[in-house]
Design brief:
This protein has about 325 residues and is α/β, with parallel strands linked by helices. It is built from 12 helices and 10 strands. The chain has a single domain, classed as TIM Barrel, CATH 3.20.20. Strands 8-7-6-5-4-3-10-9 form an 8-stranded parallel beta sheet, covered by helices on one side. A two-stranded antiparallel ribbon has the order 1-2. The two termini are about 30 Å apart.
């Protein structure tokens, strides 16, 4: 495992973040086995959200930390302010309400990194920045950032903070990986920095070195290693609607074909090639990955042993037809 840092978090943050959407307070044995295995493999960072499984993901994490007594070993990343069917919820009231719910479910007094799950660009950033700083000063969060916030909005929030002597966003969680997010998977409101349309965003992240906590880094299963261009039609039913909408397009099937070719040459898996592609980028990236069990997570950790040349990265990302 390799580690990085997030400003405000006084713990090493593993470069691979385990997504815990499948962790559940109702499936304790299976959930605890996965979390134990990930921690043993060096994972310190665990991603959850107020909206995951109606709170069961956070409750499962909270039960695990309480039973294992390991709260100070792990970095908990949680998210709030997701819109609902009735309204947008990026408000100081909803932020505070969601955070207190999360703290209760997680059985902890603080969240290491608190992310706003969505943005509402029609509203000024000031009240949100002020509220986040209030919770920071109260010790309820150690650092904060945005998920599905554009780099322009993050820059505006950080400018507001700097002008007033407040803490800025310490991290961002957009979609990022080898696959291009061609359409919004849950939309509107999802933000990706992958693919040709988002070169400006990637340049900003490279220049600022803002930690990128990248969600759907393996394209929600398209790059799981189970799918090939040849079996795609037969395996289509195993992929969820978000994957089919966002990633199952010809450009990504070509990326998959190329990843399979390099994987065969390097005796690696497709997920390992995709993660190596991300680690070789100039961004300060922390991929979020899901895993059904410890063995799956261990295979992802092995991606740190792979090296890709600049030519291989460019070829994988369809920037060139030669390598």
């Amino acid at each position: 495992m390799q580690y990085g840092s997030v400003a405000g978090v006084q713990k090493p943050v593993s470069r691979l973040i385990l997504g815990t959407m499948i962790v559940s307070s109702q499936e304790r044995e299976q959930s605890f086995a996965l979390l134990d295995a990930a921690l043993e493999l060096g994972c310190t960072a665990f991603d959850t959200a107020h909206g995951y499984a109606g709170g069961s993901s956070e409750r499962g994490l909270g039960l695990w930390m309480a039973e294992r007594g390991n709260r100070e070993q792990v970095v908990i990343i949680s998210k709030g302010c997701h819109h609902n069917a009735d309204r947008k919820r990026v408000t100081p009231f909803d932020l505070t309400s969601d955070l207190h719910d999360s703290l209760a479910r997680l059985q902890t007094g603080y969240v290491d990194v608190y992310l706003l799950h969505r943005d509402d660009p029609s509203l000024p950033v000031g009240p949100i920045v002020e509220t986040l700083n209030e919770h920071l000063c109260a010790g309820r969060i150690r650092a904060f950032g945005g998920s599905n916030w554009t780099h322009q909005r993050i820059a505006a929030a950080n400018e507001y903070a700097r002008e007033r002597g407040l803490m800025p966003f310490a991290a961002s969680s957009p979609n990022y990986g080898l696959a291009e997010q061609v359409e919004d998977p849950w939309g509107p409101g999802c933000v990706s920095i992958s693919g040709p349309p988002n070169q400006e965003a990637r340049a900003w992240y490279e220049a600022t070195q803002t930690p990128v906590l990248a969600y759907s880094s393996l394209a929600r299963g398209l790059f799981s290693g189970r799918i090939t261009p040849q079996n795609f039609d037969q395996m289509r039913s195993t992929l969820d609607r978000a994957c089919l909408t966002a990633y199952c397009h010809e450009c990504n099937l070509e990326r998959l074909r190329r990843a399979l070719e390099i994987a065969e040459e390097k005796r690696a898996s497709v997920p390992q090639i995709v993660l190596a592609f991300m680690f070789a980028s100039p961004l300060n990236v922390f991929p979020m990955v899901g895993a059904a069990n410890g063995d799956e997570f261990r295979q992802n950790v092995d991606a740190f042993d792979l090296a890709l040349t600049a030519e291989e990265r460019a070829w994988l990302d369809l920037e060139t037809d030669h390598r």
